[in-house]
Write a structure and sequence with these properties.
Structural class: alpha/beta
Number of strands: 25
Number of domains: 2
CATH class of the largest domain: Alpha Beta
Helix content: 25-40%
CATH superfamily of the largest domain: Enolpyruvate transferase domain
Radius of gyration: 22 Å
CATH topology of the largest domain: UDP-n-acetylglucosamine1-carboxyvinyl-transferase, Chain
CATH architecture of the largest domain: Alpha-beta prism
Strand content: 25-35%
Distance between the termini: 25 Å
Length: 452
C-alpha cells in the first residue's frame, strides 16, 4: 500500500526515492587496478552522427552507439525533428527525409553540444520550434543565436540570451562572420545546417576559433554521410561552393568512435593505480581529447601503445606544462593526474571552463582542495601542486560528470576512503564509469541506481 503524506500528493515511497536519488553517493577505497577495459563510445561522435542521420535522406545504421544521457537527448531530438529510430541488435537504425518536425518542441537535456548544434539545424524548418533544456543548460549563454540566426532569416525569441528559445525558419544560408572563442559547437551546428540547406557560394568566417579538432570531427562526419562539405580555409573561413550537391539515397553506415574524453579518465586511472590496458581508442582520431597522450608523456607516465591497446603502469611522475585551450574537457583528468606528479603542473586554458556543467576551474580548486591538493588560479593558467598525500575526504560532483570522475580517479590512491556526493552525474557522458572501474578491481560501493 502507498501511504500519502498530505502535500502535493507525494507518497512516502516516492519521497524516499527522491531523497535517495538526490543524495546518491559513491564511496571509493584505495585500490589496485588490473585488467583490460574497452573505452566508452564517444558522445561527440554519437551526437554528430545523429544530426547527420537526420539531415541525409534515407537510412542510417549507427554502430557502437553510446547510451549516455547526452546521447539519449540527441536521439530524442532527431525523433522530434522528423526521423524515426529503432534499436536493432545493439545498433540504431535511423530513417529520415530531412528536417520535418513531428513536434513543436525539442528538449536538449543538459547537453551543451545538442543545444548549440541542433538549434541551427531545427531552424531549417518553417515551423516554429521551442528549444528547452535542463539543469546547468538553463544558465548557459545562448545570445549567439540572438545575434546570428536573424542574419539567416530565422525568427528567434530567447529569454534574455538564455533558454528557452523559440525559432522559426527556414534558415537561408548567407555570408556571415561569427565569434568562435566561446565554443566551436555553435559553428558545428551552422556547418551542418548550411549543408542541410545545400548552401551555394556562401561562407562562414570565424574569429578566434577554439577547439579546432572538434571542427575536424564535424567535417569528417559530414563527409562520411555524403553531406556537402565546405572548403576549410585555415579555420578562418568555411566556403560552400557553387556545385549542386545530391546526397545519394542509400544506406549509410557510421561507427561511433571510442571516446577519448571518457577514456582519458581510464588512462589516468591506469597511470595512478594500474597496470591496465585500454582498448577502442583510435590513435588517428580527430577528437581533441586525444591530447591526453601528450600530457601523460609530459608527466613521464608509464605508457606504451600499439594498434590494439594503450597500456599504463604506475611509475614516479613529474609535474608538467600543458595547453588545454583546445581540449578544455581534459582539465578534470589532468588535475587528477597532476595530484600524483611531483612538483607543480601548469595547465593553460582556464578561460574555457566558465560555461560548463559547473565553473570547473573553481569547482576543481574547491573539491580537490578537500583532498589536500592545492590548486592556484592565475589568469588563464591553473597550477596544481602535486606529489603530496591525497587525503580522506567527502567531495561533491556539483552535478558535473567530469568532476565526479576526476575525484573518483584521484581517490584510487588516496590515504583512505573518499566519498563522492551526487555521484550519478556521470550518467551524462559515461554511465558505465563506476562499473568499469569495479571490473578493473576498484573497491567502491555503488547505490542500486548506479548498479542497474
Amino acid at each position: 500500500m502507498i501511504v500519502m503524506i498530505g502535500y502535493e500528493g507525494i507518497s512516502v515511497n516516492l519521497k524516499i526515492l527522491i531523497i535517495c536519488v538526490r543524495s546518491m553517493k559513491v564511496t571509493i577505497q584505495p585500490s589496485q587496478l588490473e585488467g583490460i577495459i574497452q573505452a566508452p563510445a564517444s558522445k561527440s561522435s554519437m551526437q554528430r552522427a545523429c544530426a547527420a542521420a537526420l539531415l541525409v535522406k534515407g537510412k542510417t545504421i549507427i554502430q557502437n552507439p553510446g547510451h549516455s544521457n547526452d546521447d539519449k537527448a540527441a536521439l530524442g531530438i532527431i525523433q522530434s525533428l522528423g526521423a524515426t529510430t529503432e534499436l536493432v541488435d545493439g545498433e540504431w537504425h535511423v530513417d529520415s527525409n530531412g528536417v520535418d518536425p513531428f513536434a513543436n518542441k525539442i528538449n536538449c537535456g543538459e547537453s551543451g553540444l545538442s543545444i548549440r548544434m541542433f538549434a541551427s539545424i531545427a531552424a531549417l524548418s518553417e515551423k516554429q520550434i521551442t528549444i528547452v533544456g535542463e539543469g546547468s543548460l538553463l544558465t548557459r549563454p545562448m545570445d549567439f543565436f540572438d545575434e546570428i540566426l536573424p542574419k539567416l532569416q530565422v525568427k528567434i525569441d530567447s529569454d534574455g540570451g538564455k533558454l528557452p528559445l523559440a525559432i522559426q525558419g527556414p534558415l537561408q544560408p548567407a555570408n556571415i562572420e561569427v565569434d568562435g572563442s566561446l565554443s566551436s559547437q555553435f559553428l558545428t551546428g551552422l556547418l551542418m545546417a548550411y549543408a542541410g540547406a545545400d548552401a551555394k557560394d556562401v561562407s562562414i568566417k570565424v574569429n578566434n576559433l577554439k577547439s579546432k579538432p572538434y571542427i575536424d570531427l564535424t567535417l569528417d562526419v559530414m563527409k562520411q554521410y555524403g553531406l556537402k562539405v565546405p572548403e576549410n580555409r585555415n579555420y578562418e573561413e568555411f566556403y560552400f561552393g557553387n556545385e549542386i550537391h545530391h546526397s545519394p539515397l542509400t544506406t549509410h553506415h557510421y561507427t561511433v568512435e571510442g571516446d577519448w574524453s571518457g577514456g582519458a579518465f581510464l588512462l589516468v586511472a591506469g597511470a595512478i593505480a594500474g597496470p591496465i590496458s585500454v582498448r577502442g581508442l583510435d590513435l588517428a582520431s580527430t577528437q581533441a581529447d586525444k591530447a591526453i597522450i601528450d600530457a601523460l608523456m609530459a608527466a613521464n607516465a608509464g605508457i606504451s601503445m600499439d594498434a590494439k591497446e594503450i597500456q599504463l603502469v604506475p611509475v614516479e611522475m613529474n609535474g608538467f606544462d600543458f595547453d588545454a585551450t583546445d581540449c578544455p574537457d581534459l582539465f578534470p583528468p589532468l588535475v587528477a593526474l597532476a595530484a600524483y606528479c611531483k612538483g607543480a603542473t601548469s595547465i593553460k586554458g582556464v578561460s574555457r571552463l566558465t560555461h560548463k556543467e559547473s565553473n570547473r576551474a573553481l569547482t576543481l580548486q574547491e573539491e580537490f582542495g578537500k583532498m589536500g591538493v592545492k590548486i592556484e588560479l592565475k589568469g588563464d593558467v591553473m597550477i596544481i601542486h602535486g606529489g603530496n598525500i591525497v587525503r580522506v575526504a567527502r567531495v561533491h560532483s556539483r552535478h558535473d560528470h567530469r568532476i565526479a570522475m576526476a575525484c573518483a580517479v584521484a581517490a584510487l590512491k588516496a590515504e583512505g576512503e573518499v566519498i563522492i556526493d551526487e555521484a550519478q552525474a556521470i550518467k551524462k557522458s559515461y554511465p558505465d564509469f563506476y562499473r568499469d572501474l569495479q571490473s578493473l578491481g576498484a573497491s567502491l560501493s555503488l547505490p542500486i541506481q548506479l548498479i542497474n
